[in-house]
Amino acid sequence: xxxxxxxxxxxxxxxxAHKPDNLxxxxxxNWLRVRAASSETYQETRAIIRDFNLHTVCEEAACPNxxxxxxxxxxxxxxxGSICTRACAFCNVATGKPDQVDPNEPxxxxxxxxKLGLNHVVITSVDRDDLPDGGAGHFxxxxxxxxxxxxxxxxxxxxxxxxxxxxxxxxxxxxxPDVFNHNLExxxxxxTTIRPGARYFNSLHLLYSAKEMDPYISTKSGxxxxxxxxxxxxxxxxxxxxxxxxxxxxxxxxxxxxxxHHAVDRFVSxxxxxxxxxxxxxKGFLIVSSSPLTRSSYFAGEDFAKLRAARNAHLxxxxxxx
Length: 322
What we know:
- It is found in: Cytoplasm.
- It is an enzyme of class 2 (transferase).
- The chain is α/β, with parallel strands linked by helices.
- Helices cover 38% and strands 11% of the residues.
- The chain has an eight-stranded mixed beta sheet with strand order 1-2-3-4-5-6-7-8, with helices on both faces.
- The model is unreliable at 1-9 (pLDDT under 50).
């Protein structure tokens, strides 16, 4: 009898397998329905990712925008493997004991950037609490390789919180990414159930520290709504982000990946997302992306171009003569 491969028997979310199902009780509204992946460019993008043996958060996190983004050759690279050491209640990335870090991954990411013709690339990762630096050195090397192979490509990193990893943040910021992104994900009250391996104020401090280390770096963070938060709590998170000097905010609808994940509390209307957008701009964010399908890297390149223009205008206002 043929043996079953390790990949086939691996449970994607072993820590959730014993939990009762959270059955979806609400029908997905029309504004959350997306088209299936079918275009030729989508298939070409997929082939490039496979050729370089890379992972993307687009696939691993079951992003609803994958058809649209890959049809434009936009893909968010996920480094440090595909197995996460944490078990957030919202996330579809596989959890468990990670594989060995691939030393060729940074160069392969850089080569794929050229092949895809990316002007802006987003690099994210799984949490690697098992590594002494949390994977910070691998982030830095990936940035270095992209600069080497494609100097004109701007680089955005979406990092873990590097909890208890001394100097990890300094390693990443020292590699000079154009954008430093770390998502708060939800409001403080929901952290123990939604993001139990993290701490809200630790994540907030990470964002603040990145700006303190490099005042010229653009910082970004995002949250999901529809998890049970209130509008007042969302407003407070916005204020907290601005206190940490965050430049750009993304707000999107949480969508339950599997019945074992946290249930959707409600589907937030496009009108409410527009209200959040107006409030965020009024609080001083330079760029706001707020819509049901918004994700951290959705239209990240276009947002970065707007962010750079907005920051330049803001700095020009500061130094203009009275």
